[in-house]
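Incident review: delayed structure delivery

Summary: a single-chain prediction request sat in the queue longer than the usual turnaround. Root cause was a stuck worker, restarted by the on-call engineer. No data loss occurred. The affected request and its eventual output are reproduced below so the record is complete for anyone auditing the incident later.

Affected input:
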Amino acid sequence: MSASLRPNRLLKPDEATDHIHGPASALVTLIEYGDFECPACFQASTALKVMLPHFEDGLRHVFRHFPLREVHPHAELAAEAAEAAGAQGQFWPMHDLLFANQQHLKDKHLQDYAARLGLDMARFENEMKDHVYLQRVQEHLAGGRQLALRSTPAFYVNGVFTDVSFGLQHLREAIERALAA
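Output delivered after worker restart:
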């Protein structure tokens, strides 16, 4: 197969580095690039909570970080906190807390959220101080840049970019088409 026909490795979930909801056997894979400080990403996360259960086991959702540091100064640190929580099995609860409290993403707030989730605080604080997960966040960011992303949220349905700038109904329709195919 020629290189131009080979599926982009960035559009396939990686069990080792991605956060995934849903079964590997799902017919549709939704990859989301998001920023915890982005208001549109908050709206998307709220809509996804309603939309995703509708598709049951037919869909798996992958979340990747794309912190837009130039406009969202706390997004990268929040992404690191989500990764630190993920290392303790609490990525999705931290994901939800960060979006629900996106106006409060300074270090002291992130520590409060970690404590609320019952994380090992010594571990969390050390990992945050040492920026243990910064490389993973930057790898997600670099992957998004390779895909020529410029804004968030950005979605791929079975490897196809889905523009949601005019509403998340487009995303739902793209998922439904992929399930029907």
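Verification: The longest strand covers residues 28-34.
Action items: add queue-age alerting; document worker restart procedure.
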